Amino acid sequence: MPTLYVLIGLPGSGKSHWAQTNADRIGAVVVGSDEVRAEFQARGQNPYDGDAVFAEVERRARAHLQAAQSVILDATHYQRRYRRYALDLALQLQVPCVAVWFDIPLVKALQCNGGRTGDRFGEQRLPDHIIGEMAAYFDSPGRDEFDRVVRIKG
What we know:
single chain, 154 residues, alpha/beta, Rossmann fold, 5-stranded parallel beta sheet, 5 strands
């Protein structure tokens, strides 16, 4: 049975690295918001239109899950409201939904972010205040949301 893995953590917490490192091991395909944003930008679409970006993320995840393939959703999902689409999708398709929570200190996320030098989404350095605001409003995942929560402490 396919499983939906929802990555949850601040920018710079290691989500994308974990997804790429573990996708083959758990037999999953990675669907990432940064990849969708980059594609939107290349096509002249607004990469900051969160509704459109996550509608496409959900469409891709749905197609893979319906084809009986597990999916890793690679995005921050730092608030409950931002992961509702994933939980609803898992419920609709009756697949297990696992949170992979990257529980790292803000200072570590800021250090990792500070080392970013790329120009593609996910490789760009974000302003520190944005990551700080995300940390201030971070909703930890719970068993009331997910079938299982895997906590990766850093």
